[in-house]
């Protein structure tokens, strides 16, 4: 039988608590030398962030603006997921500090900006040694406010001063609600206000500057290395490791070259390839299958690549695999040719669908005409490719998602936009509308493109896209 006090005591609590000991408390707060608390950011980040704030200031003149970094979500019990700062916040500041808040106040025809951060606990404060989530004794040296200010070239104030930055009813504050509880409590924005701010930021972020394009190219170059890593590991994946070995192989590259992966890596072998988001990656890798790999490295500034290739793990496509691949490749190249300034955003999607529908009709898989299938009330060909043909790319893999439909889907392409083109065909193993030899094959080809003044630049061109090129690429990376 337990006593009341025993029943109330948390099961995980250590019966010997050093923080309650006078000797420990007297010793722990002294004797600490200097620590490296510098904030290291890539060249050009502070300048690019300032330019982004200037663009937002011009888009929302006279508006007071508050954007928060957010907090890491709980994974389970007392463990959290890794923190990943809000993309709009990062675009405006370059900062990735948990709990940070940017406030932009109208001043002199523009805005004054101040960044609010939590000050790290000093060695003589309890949080230094007792806070397992934020204390330096647990997580290592934490940059202070001066270090952040120097690196980001922006005034930085303690988070405790956030109320004074938001004081006053006029002008009203446009906030990114639902990201930071403290900000929500101090400036409870309406849904309409949050949507306005998010929409404005998304539409501004559609046009990338040279610094952002450089970050995206770094992400794509690292992604190419990850694809090569996976190709080299195919024999082990076939014999023992399976899809998870390949997923882990790419994810290790993402963690080594950058912040990690920009989204859950898809390594879908054989009959799993038709599943659009096969992120379980828990199946085998048959030696005669085609493997669909959709993955992207997110660099330390949080810009991400998004590349897909489908390749034969043996180094040679079967006849049905190549037949499907060639049709997707034809749609892919036709769609990429439509990516240029002044063209409707939907043009590359429409061109890919035209090629896909025509090919399926020629194979006898469409029981209606191509024209009827392409009609908005038809779309029968979409059974075999239900997703869109591309999307904007940047800090988010599906970038600028809060843009208005008019700006996103009905707008025109402009120089500086970065986007993906990714047609595919997916024949599920149990799809009785297709011949048996095509079932269980999925093919997608995805490249990352920059719209230039005269056309486009394929940022991911280091990876081949023709069937012959892919076969040769696989064979060149297989162990000899």
UniProtKB/TrEMBL annotation:
Reactions this protein catalyses: Release of any N-terminal amino acid, including proline, that is linked to proline, even from a dipeptide or tripeptide
E.C. number: 3.4.11.9
Domain Aminopeptidase P N-terminal intervals: 47-184
Gene Ontology terms: biological process: proteolysis
Transmembrane segments: none
EC class: hydrolase
GO molecular-function terms, A-Z: manganese ion binding; metalloaminopeptidase activity
Cofactors named for this entry: Mn(2+)
One matching Pfam family: Peptidase_M24
UniProt-listed InterPro entries: Aminopep_P_N, Creatin/AminoP/Spt16_N, Creatinase/aminopeptidase-like, Pept_M24, Peptidase_M24B_aminopep-P_CS, X-Pro_dipept-like
Keyword Signal: no
GO annotation, cellular component aspect: cytosol
PROSITE patterns tied to this protein: PROLINE_PEPTIDASE
Keyword terms: Aminopeptidase, Hydrolase, Manganese, Metal-binding, Protease
SUPFAM superfamilies associated with the record: Creatinase/aminopeptidase (SSF55920), Creatinase/prolidase N-terminal domain (SSF53092)
Family of this protein: Belongs to the peptidase M24B family.
Protein name, per record: Xaa-Pro aminopeptidase
Organism for this UniProt entry: Crossiella cryophila
